[in-house]
Amino acid sequence: MSWRRAPRCWWRRAAPGPACLAASGGRPILDMSYSRHFLDFQGSSIPTAMKKLVVTELSPNFRQAVTLRRDVPVPLPGDGDLLVRNRFVGINASDINYSAGRYDTSVKPPFDVGFEGVGDVVALGLSASAHYSVGQAVAYVKAGSFAEYTVVPAKEAVPLPSVKPEFLTLMVSGATAYISLKNLGGLSEGKKVLVTAAAGGTGQFAVQLAKKAKCHVIGTCSSDEKSGFLKSIGCDRVINYKTENVESVLRKDYPEGVDVVYESVGGKMFDLAINSLATKGRLIVIGFIAGYQNPTGIQPIKAEFLPAKLLKKSASVQGFFLNHYFSEYKMALQHLLKMYEKGELVCEVDLGDMSPEGKFIGLESVFRAVDYMYMGKNIGKIVVELPHSVNSKL
Q1: Is the pLDDT of residue 32 over 80?
Q2: Which end of the chain is more exposed for a tag (fewer CB within 10 A), N or C?
Q3: Lowest mean per-residue pLDDT among 4-18, 58-72, 98-112, 259-273
Q4: Which of 336, 198, 308 lies closest to 261, judged by CA?
């Protein structure tokens, strides 16, 4: 059934009568709770049910924690909301922190999972229609993106010129690098910047943004393919830790230390980075992926020596969590989008083409994509494509 052919009572503000039920005997799209809202579908073909991933058990083991549910009712947008048909969703290292309940211990299963998505607006409420329209491409950061459809408050959506996976790389990964380095990095020409996991989703942006600040950039990675990618985006010194000893390289090539470390690995890499800081050096912790799969979520560090090491160098360690900087988020994203559109920023996407079972397509492949990340195989941001069937029926 096409929404374009729907009777007038589909869009009237009055509560819908029996005639407003789908011809096939389906549910009413407007019920009493939405009787005051204008829901605009404009020909969108929206099914009554969808698939989504749900955390059903708290665990850092993503496969154990998360269940793929089918035949879940497609949610309805409220007055200020958009209903987004997800086309691409992003994989983040913290997906398993979320599934383990580490972000909010008060939240109990079941709850939705996934942090970011890019897709098309297929329906929206009256207030939301002042700024958006059906068919518009948008991106968003909101829990619950691992679903075929997600309701997104219009004020939190980001309008896009088109639906492309490259835009998704900027939402969490790019914004994290931009805001953290701007606020905490103190970057200036000639500074030496070490980026750990430099070929990953956020590392790629830390490398490029530090280069744009005219810094000397050192990046760690785990393969020759990643080394080649890092050189292609301007990394001055690439250290493949599978073939070189990172500590030895830093001690030999940078005897006075590095000025800034963009650190996302944790454990032994954190200790190494602390030891490599220059006088007045800064270490920014944006994650510690090496420990996420542990029951505690962390790997031990030599913290008992930390105060002495920081004091000796007048150095600092600062944490960065994107949720605490949302007041700067839209400005940062607009800047990153302009850079990408001007060809000034590489947004590397890893859709799983080189993974053993091939490209990440469909919600079922999110499990593989998370495994792929923790095997350290990705170059750039891991993105899962959600294909849309043009034959979806009401």
Answers
A1: no
A2: N
A3: 4-18
A4: 198
Q: What gap in Å lies between CA 98 and CA 59, rounded to an integer?
A: 9
* Helix H or strand E segment including 279: strand 277-285
Using CA atoms, how far residue 218 sits from 193, 215, 259, 261, in Å, is 6, 10, 11, 9
Q: Are residues 174 and 149 both part of a single domain?
A: no
Give the CATH number, domain containing residue 279: 3.40.50.720
| Residue 40 pLDDT grade (very low, low, confident, very high; cuts 50, 70, 90) | low
Measured torsion, CA atoms of residues 196, 305, 280, 299, in degrees rounded to the nearest 10: 20
CB atoms within 10 A of CB 178: 25
Task: Name the average pLDDT for the chain.
Answer: 89
CA 229 – CA 123 distance, rounded (Å): 40
Secondary structure of residue 241 in the 3-state scheme: coil
Kindly tell me if the per-residue pLDDT of 340 is higher than 50: yes
Tokens of 272: 């190494």
- Please say if the pLDDT value at position 56 is more than 90: yes
Whether residues 159 and 10 fall in one domain: yes
Task: Report which of 323, 36, 40 is spatially closest to residue 154, judged by C-alpha positions.
Answer: 40
Whether residue 147 contacts residue 112, with contact meaning beta carbons closer than 8 Å, is answered with yes
Of 323, 340, 362, which closes a domain? Answer: 323
Is residue 152 classed exposed, middle or buried when 0-12, 13-18 and 19+ CB atoms within 10 A define those classes?
buried
Are both 29 and 154 inside the same structural domain?
Answer: yes
What angle, rounded to 10 degrees, do the helices at 268-275 and 246-253 form?
10
Rounded percentage of the chain residues whose pLDDT exceeds 90:
82
Per residue in 239-272, pLDDT tens? Answer: 999 999 999 999 999 999 999 999 999 999 999 9
Statement to judge: residues 70 and 43 lie in one domain: yes
Long-range pairs of 223-232 with CB within 8 A, sequence gap ≥ 24: 225/379, 226/198, 226/199, 226/379, 229/199, 229/204, 229/348, 229/379, 229/380, 230/198, 230/199, 232/346
**DSSP state at residue 227:** H
Q: Which helix (H) or strand (E) holds 340?
A: helix 329-341
* Domain co-membership, 108 together with 148: yes
Does residue 366 fall inside a structural domain?
yes
| Same domain flag for 213 and 113 | no
Domain span holding position 197? 170-323
